[in-house]
Fold:
Amino acid sequence: MARVTVEDCLDNVDNRFELVMLATKRSRQLATGGKEPKVPWENDKPTVVALREIASGLIDNEIVLLEDVVEEEPLFAAFEDEANNEAL
Structure:
């Protein structure tokens, strides 16, 4: 897919606001989170890759949020351990 249009993405997302939020989260994951793209990178910027994934139907809110939760669990576990040790 050479160009990604909003209409291509809106086939898989309810509205433009949700599209912006989803593309932002996914592009941030690709750029800084070390997440692997689900489409060929093709020398594009992370935002374009995120939009291509959304247009292809490979990424939705549930997938992005699930990846965020899995990523945050070890961080919270460390804080819980500290709090439990201090309480004793």
User: Anything to note?
Assistant: The mean pLDDT is 83. The chain has one domain: 6-87. Helices lie at 6-10, 16-32, 46-56, 61-87.
